[in-house]
Amino acid sequence: MSTNQSDTLTARDDNGAVAVSASPRPTPARRVPHFSLADRAAHGKAARADVPRRLHAAWEPSPARRDPVDLLEEQATTRVPELVPLRYGRMSVSPFTFFRGAAYVMAADLAGAPRTGLQVQLCGDAHLANFGGFAAPDRRLVFSVNDFDETLPGPFEWDLKRLAASFAVAGRDRGFAVPQRQTVNQAVGRAYREAMARFAALPTLDLWYTRVDLEGLLQRLQGQLAPKVLARFERGAAKARTKDSLEALARLTQLVDGERRIVSTPPQVVPIEDLVPPAEAEQLEEYVHGVLRAYRRTLAGDRQRLLERFRYVQAARKVVGVGSVGTRAWIVLMLGRDDEDPLFLQLKAAEASVLEPFLGKSQFTTHGQRVVEGQRLTQTASDIMLGWIRTTALDGVTRDFYVRQLWDAKVSARIEVMDAATLAAYAEVCGSTLALGHARSGDAVAIASYLGTSDTFDRALASFAESYADQNERDYAALKAAAAAGRIVVESER
Could you tell me the residue ranges of all domains in the chain? Predict the structure, then answer.
């Protein structure tokens, strides 16, 4: 990631709200070191002396390990209070849903393990449900990591361990036997290792242009999956092509007195005017206009012009995800040439990454920029409307947000219907896709050299995944016990 810092541009609206965007600040020229292929490979192999590959199999909780519920409660202090019980409700459904919301817990655990020192731009929450398909700017469907709320530079194995552990937890959730889970878990490391070796051999520009095309991915899986499973994937891809702002308009809005309005379905979706007294509604609308103006300045010039063709209509608070529940997330309806020409944006709060207490603070001025820059570095293709803002809201609290389109042909894997063979194939896809993001942001040659050509690392990673799945079950039980004792309040979905 670039080491450039940034100036802050402050926009103050009539109501006193402040929105801050970031622009590049020239930095003194510096010499970038360029090492030979032999030196880079030697660096990776030397890391084995400090952290042998078999060492990654180990997981044993520290005697000083913090209570997982305490860590979750620490996160709750910055979230919307009335939504925290809903977050706990979603996490309480199963050990798998708990794992999805427990990125902070696992980051604290990984911090105590030896580190390879082979740095990449981490996703920070690389579980299997944070991979999926979406439309690239050329409108072809691509597959990639699609959640960067926790992104930060760090050792490559942190993402890989969270990914492998997520497959171990999912395999248990699906009721798979130990040998089946072992096959799935080992597929993650093998696919990552083999893909990293391929990326290490590519010319630099070829690596940068490489992407996982969903159509090509389905062709590649034809020999691995049953025809009915492939047909289900193809139907999902076809449906995704219709999941855009027009679909959001149909599903999330209705005509009221001839005007498009977002439908209220609390607590999942609540129009912004329902969150404040009527006397503050006009002030709130002016505030949203100021936020959009500040966000616009973080876009490239051509995309600023594109955004200018849409007018603001309405905003609403939306509950998203599992671990993200309680963070402030908004959807914004904008209309272009007529009432059937929508642009739906999502503004999602960007707080400090769960990795920062263990890997250091972000180099960026705002966490919104941290998320956006991490995503652009990792993904071959990103949303054309990706941007960020810092804003002081009407409650006087300054917060960071990143902005993207709400739906842009999003495809999500249905883990709950996968058999063991399908989950193993998906593990290979996610492992190789994670390797691509890491190869773009880190040293593929060094990482490939560290991993080597044997299955030593794969087996160690699979062993860790099962051991950590045991830990996850203990932590899930702790959450359930905390709820039963009245220590936390849990609210189920309505």
Answer: 6-24+243-405, 58-129+151-227+419-484
